Amino acid sequence: MAEWQAFHEVRFPTAISFGATGGPVRRNEVITLTSGREKRNARFAHSRRAYDAGTGIRSLEDLYEVMAFFEARRGTLHGFRFRDPFDMKSCRPDLDVSPTDQLIGTGDGANRVFQLAKSYGEGPDAYVRLIAKPVEGSVRVAVNGGEMAEGADFTVDPATGVVTFEMAATPAEGEAVTAGFEYDVPVRFNAEALEISLASFKAGQIPSIPLVEILP
């Protein structure tokens, strides 16, 4: 896991984030050949989430709160946590987190360190996304289906999503290590300025507040 540069472990105002729009972005190159057929290449291995928090603004108080948050992050300089309103759990949003939600590794009798991750899809086409910003206290871990105790059997770093087992609880050879969790998305502001007009806001025009995911 790469070291996080210029990151503040604070969360963007949750009430505003729940009204935001956005989601995963894939950068692919599509070339149409003279035959009419297409050649498609993935420009990046991972998707990157992008949001517009402006759609979550409902009042002047919200505007002020975002402006203060923007200033405290020094604009685009410091990253921060964002609560994705559509994708914030290891399971479907309508379900409760379970310690068997996601496979994060298989024991070999020696390795005690596992990275939280979430899979989308099934089989060889599944996409595995690293989860680096779990919500503290939400992580549940199981080994071969048996839930482990945080603190006694394992610890989790909320700043990196790394799960470390105690020596006595090291997963044995072939044992499935699974986890369930809630998480935030590491993002930064994707604009050098907040373009806010009081007259436009009162007229019903929503300001644009772009955010973009920071990949580990």
UniProtKB/TrEMBL annotation:
Residues 8-214 form the DUF2460 domain. This is DUF2460 domain-containing protein. NCBIfam families: chp_TIGR02217 (TIGR02217). InterPro entries: DUF2460. It comes from the Bacteria.
